[in-house]
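testing teh design pipeline on a random one, pls ignore if ur not involved
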């Protein structure tokens, strides 16, 4: 996949991220849960090419009560899950127990900021009870594992109103609609029928009638309701993995020996062993070292390396930052570029940001590593990083100079660029002029008088692209795109 396809995919993933975040906020603030990401990266939209086959578990979990939540965000609110006839791939197979909760939400990516609304909570049990009313969507080919969608029908009016009367027997519901009323009758086609209670007001887009029973309460059962230390000893990985993951948040020290045992037992799944180290790592440098070994050693698979790097990125200690730095700079042939790029990414976006370590990676000979490092440099540069960039503009190394010019221009540090212009070697001067041409006219105009005539002329010529109607964001490249569509035989 090229980086343009990645952008499209990231946009698609963003919807899920916004939904998971809104569900987290609601569960924490309105229902008393303490939510963590049970599936790593459930709340991130970064696209990696190295696919990690994680355990089939829901996105989110409460570390107080142990309840699991699978969140789904779509443009349109629908109770829809992917389903398959393959073993372990049915809609209910993702590690959801009967009282675990599916959370559906509507995500509107067109507003700024993005809005998430109409949260619907429903237990796996309720969806099973209403299975007779659910409908299969289009089944893809057998070669794709007979993957399809399963949908539980409901009625969501696009207007606000109030429920006037419910007829359970005939499966009908009457609601107010403006100044009159409307009788909804299509529910009679469902085997099971539930509605909001008579007298309940509803918002536009909120489900009023549905074939499943909505969760009555999603409140947290509170302290003591989950015996996670016992779950650590379970033989069932679906039970043990969430407990291992939660240990980091609940205090790993009292169970350190158990976790060390899990991490060291080669009979365990690699993901369980890695996660035990990840839970120990914030308080145990030896586990950081173990994750570093997993990322770098010759016999790890790429998915193990990648998961080790992503888990190190979650740890805010100096040792973890050192480990990421080592991986990002690794010269071992077994360590792929993307693993190094992910380590750089972790140094910029992870729990322990380390811009001083990151700055040397923006000139890495690997384009993948260098661009990942540059993209996550903080917007407020620490002085030592700024000094470093200014040094690069004085030396005769065009690659370094170009990086520096981009990073400064992106941060609108125009005075620094203008000052650097005086002392820069010839080739570097042109790169600085190019970068200034990318910045706003307003920011630079006041400084133009400090420049020589040639640089001034260069910058003002570059600004002319603002006056060119075919170089605007909505028109740039449009002629090429249209010419590609002139094929007609
Ligand atoms: Zn809870």
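output:
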């Amino acid at each position: 996949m090229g980086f343009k396809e990645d952008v499209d995919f990231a946009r698609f993933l963003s919807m899920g991220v916004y939904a998971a975040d809104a569900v987290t906020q609601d569960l924490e603030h309105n229902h008393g849960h303490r939510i963590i990401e049970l599936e790593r990266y459930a709340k991130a939209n970064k696209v990696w090419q190295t696919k990690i086959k994680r355990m089939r578990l829901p996105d989110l979990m409460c570390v107080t009560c142990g309840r699991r939540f699978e969140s789904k965000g779509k443009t349109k609110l629908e109770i829809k899950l992917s389903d398959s006839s393959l073993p372990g791939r049915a809609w209910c197979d993702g590690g959801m127990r009967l009282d675990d909760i599916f959370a559906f939400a509507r995500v509107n990516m067109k507003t700024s900021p993005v809005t998430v609304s109409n949260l619907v909570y429903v237990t796996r049990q309720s969806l099973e009870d209403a299975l007779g009313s659910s409908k299969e969507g289009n089944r893809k080919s057998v070669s794709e594992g007979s993957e399809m969608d399963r949908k539980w029908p409901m009625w969501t009016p696009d207007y606000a109103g109030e429920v006037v009367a419910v007829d359970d027997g005939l499966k009908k519901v009457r609601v107010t609609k403006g100044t009159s009323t409307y009788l909804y009758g299509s529910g009679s086609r469902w085997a099971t029928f539930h509605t909001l209670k008579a007298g309940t007001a509803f918002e536009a887009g909120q489900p009023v009638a549905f074939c499943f029973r909505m969760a009555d309460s999603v409140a947290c059962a509170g302290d003591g309701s989950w015996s996670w230390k016992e779950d650590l000893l379970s033989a069932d990985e679906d039970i043990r993995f969430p407990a291992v993951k939660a240990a980091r948040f609940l205090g790993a020290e009292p169970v350190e020996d158990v976790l060390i045992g899990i991490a060291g037992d080669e009979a365990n799944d690699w993901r369980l062993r890695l996660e035990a180290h990840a839970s120990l790592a914030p308080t145990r440098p030896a586990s950081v070292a173990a994750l570093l070994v997993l990322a770098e050693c010759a016999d790890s698979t790429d998915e193990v390396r990648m998961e080790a790097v992503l888990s190190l990125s979650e740890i805010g200690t100096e040792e973890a930052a050192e480990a990421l730095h080592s991986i990002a700079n690794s010269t071992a042939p077994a360590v792929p570029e993307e693993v190094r790029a992910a380590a750089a990414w972790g140094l910029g976006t992870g729990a322990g940001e380390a811009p001083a370590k990151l700055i040397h990676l923006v000139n890495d000979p690997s384009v993948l590593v260098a661009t990942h490092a540059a993209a996550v440099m903080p917007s407020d540069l620490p002085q030592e990083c700024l000094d470093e960039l200014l040094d690069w503009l004085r030396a005769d190394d065009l690659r370094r100079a170009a990086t520096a010019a981009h990073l400064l221009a992106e941060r609108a540090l125009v005075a620094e660029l203008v000052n650097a212009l005086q002392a820069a070697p010839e080739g570097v001067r042109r790169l600085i002029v190019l970068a200034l041409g990318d910045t706003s006219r307003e920011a630079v105009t006041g400084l133009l008088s400090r420049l020589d005539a040639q640089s001034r002329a260069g910058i003002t010529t570059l600004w002319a692209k603002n006056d060119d109607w075919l170089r605007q964001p909505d028109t740039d490249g449009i002629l090429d795109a249209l010419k590609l569509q002139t094929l007609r035989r």
